[in-house]
Amino acid sequence: MRRDDFVFCIGYEGSAAIVDGRLQRSHAGWPAVRLAEEGLFKPAVAAALYDGSEADLEAVRALYNARGGPPARSSEDLKRTFGTAGVPEGVKKVVVV
């Protein structure tokens, strides 16, 4: 699965990943911190996970907590909040909607 497909994935159906094409076209390739600065926290978390960057994940968490709402006390809280744990295996197809 390519990075931008994972970052902008909105769900899965069997072995197919469903990707938000509009967001992907307008924000492809952006680093995690820039996505978070724009308020795109789920894609930001996914980007940090795909890149394997704990530093980016912590920066996203700090930006998320600065926006208010229920605080994420750890990067695990942040991943749970946005339902993103890591790049799934077994994705055979990408459907852009």
What does this structure look like?
This protein has six helices and three strands; from the N terminus they run H-E-E-H-H-H-H-H-E. A hairpin with a 2-residue loop joins strand 1 and strand 2 (16-19). With 97 residues, it is of the alpha+beta class. It has helices spanning 3-7, 21-27, 32-37, 41-51, 54-66, 75-82, and strands spanning 9-13, 16-19, 93-96. It has one domain.
SSE order, one letter for each helix or strand: HEEHHHHHE
Helix percentage: 40-55%
Rg, rounded, reads 13 Å
**What's the N-to-C terminus distance?**
16 Å
Largest sheet: 3 strands, mixed
Structural class: alpha+beta
Q: Give the strand order of the largest sheet, numbering strands 1, 2, ... along the chain.
A: 1-2-3
Q: Give the overall average pLDDT.
A: 96
The low-confidence parts are none
Number of helices: 6
Q: How many β-strands, per DSSP?
A: 3
Which geometry do the CA atoms define? Answer: globular
Strand composition percent: 5-15%
Number of domains: 1
